[in-house]
Design a protein that fits this description.
The protein is mostly beta strands. Strands 2, 4, 5, 6, 9, 10 and 11 form a seven-stranded mixed sheet that branches. A four-stranded antiparallel sheet has the order 1-3-8-7, with no helix packed on it. The radius of gyration is 13 Å and the shape is globular. The termini are far apart.
Length: 111
């Protein structure tokens, strides 16, 4: 049974930073593309970033230059470093690994 457990969400002021983590169990982590999606209240889910098994990355336009996705295959973990956070980054963030989804972690950017 595959499990993805996210952590690191919370409340942060505009301009601040957070790092999300997603630890996987029950699967061959290193063979899958990993990613982060988010869904803000009243909006459609959007892809934030993805990273291939080889380490290639791409990002949604709204987070380019501010967010960085990385992975540690030895720890079965994918990260999302979020800098220069804006109120519009407020959303539930979901980790994905291949076809699998985490339960989400809430990020709120507010003063």
């Amino acid at each position: 049974q595959v499990q993805l457990v996210e952590s690191g969400g919370g409340l942060v002021q505009p301009g601040g930073s957070l790092r999300l983590s997603c630890e996987a169990s029950g699967t061959l982590f290193s063979t899958y593309i990993a990613g982060w999606y988010r869904q803000a209240p009243g909006k459609q889910r959007e892809r934030v970033a993805r990273i291939t098994d080889g380490g290639s990355t791409n990002y949604g336009d709204s987070v380019k230059g501010r967010f960085t996705i990385s992975r540690d295959n030895a720890k079965n973990t994918v990260y999302l470093q979020m800098n220069s956070l804006k109120p519009e980054d407020t959303a539930v963030y979901y980790c994905t690994l291949g076809p699998y989804w985490g339960q989400g972690t809430r990020v709120t950017v507010s003063s």
